[in-house]
Amino acid sequence: MKAYIDYILEETKHILLIDSPTGFTGRAADYVMEKYEELGYCPVKTEKGGILVELGGRDLENGILLEAHIDTLGGMVAETNEKGRLRLTNLGGLNPNNGETENCRVYTRDGRVYEGTFQLKNASIHVNKDYDEAKRRFEDMEVVLDEDTASKEDTKKLGIRNGDIVAFDPRTVMTQSGYIKSRFLDDKLSVGILLGYARYLKEREITPERQVYQHITVYEEVGHGACGTVPKGVTEILSVDMGCVGEGLECTERQVSICAKDSGGPYTYEVVSALIAAAEKAGVGYAVDIYPYYGSDADAALKAGYDVRHGLIGPGVYASHGYERSHRDGVENTLRLLAAYLG
């Protein structure tokens, strides 16, 4: 499996370098489309901008749809203040506490890109005696542009306007000890895993027992990524997203997490049981957990009215929606579980 894990991590690094806040995913989707085509598949771009690809399989009436999302958290320009600095509104669940002091990029509608930093207003500790007590809310924060701007008019001359996309630097690091640190491992790491699984099937000339599709969604962070594009014959949806790591949960970054229940309710009992059985039979390092504040693409598909079974797995990820951390062992265990479960 080592070659496939190396491939997954290399592709994950490339995907992380392509800014793709929810609603601004075109370049990242085009890159992933090219990767599927290089592997010999025929991906299709959906009207929403996602990617659907058929991997093959024998049972066409009991198909399974694997879903991961390429959209990330981010910001959108909501206002330019009198100093020429930008107030943001969040895209997805971006928390201003986790974005403070991060470098970012502003994408204008006419194709220009400007750099800046997301800061607390009056950010100098030597000047602001209330620095420690100040709330980190979007109305208390601003993007300080790395341009010579001192007024609203200066910033407008740059072509920046309300509605422009703001993407945060992922700061990706892969350590010698196998840890993967970056923003937006949720869920670009799992997009890499699905590419790795597609390559695994192709190179080993494996035909799965059931027809397998992959759907790379682009609106998961705002709740409707998987509300469409379920092919005929699909009876099960398996989200491959980040596995939660934190207090009260058993999973670590080196395991694959099997979710039994999230904020949307329990996952299909038979699917969760079958995932556990497959993990145990294959000797996969796994944990079963309940995620208290979480919703997945599989949840979204059921809420959209699809009559399917559903499940959720993913490599353990610590510090979700912040500066996240996983491990190559968690990636390997997720890939091995997919291979064992799908046959």
The end-to-end span amounts to: 16 Å
Average of per-residue pLDDT values:
97
- Mind describing the biggest β-sheet? 10 strands, mixed
Question: So how many helices?
Answer: 8
Question: What does this protein look like?
Answer:
It is a single chain. The chain has 343 residues and is of the alpha+beta class. Helix content is 27%, strand content 31%. The strands form 3 sheets. Strands 1, 2, 3, 12, 13, 14, 15, 16, 17 and 18 form a 10-stranded mixed β-sheet that branches. A 6-stranded antiparallel β-sheet has the order 5-4-9-6-7-8. It has a 3-stranded antiparallel β-sheet with strand order 10-11-19. The radius of gyration is 21 Å and the shape is globular. The two termini are 16 Å apart. The mean pLDDT is 97.
Essential attributes:
343 residues; alpha+beta; ten-stranded mixed β-sheet; six-stranded antiparallel β-sheet; 8 helices; 27% helix; globular
Provide a concise account of the structure shown.
This protein has 343 residues and is α+β, with helices and mostly antiparallel strands. The protein is 27% helix and 31% strand. Strand 15 (256-262) and strand 16 form a beta hairpin.
Question: What layout of secondary structure does this protein have?
Answer:
Elements: H1 2-16, H2 26-38, E1 44-45, E2 51-56, E3 59-69, E4 74-80, E5 86-91, H3 96-99, E6 103-107, E7 113-120, E8 141-145, H4 152-157, E9 165-168, E10 173-174, E11 179-182, H5 185-203, E12 210-217, E13 234-240, E14 243-245, E15 256-262, E16 265-266, H6 269-282, E17 286-290, H7 297-303, E18 309-318, E19 324-327, H8 328-342
Helix pairs in contact: 1-5, 1-8, 5-8, 6-8
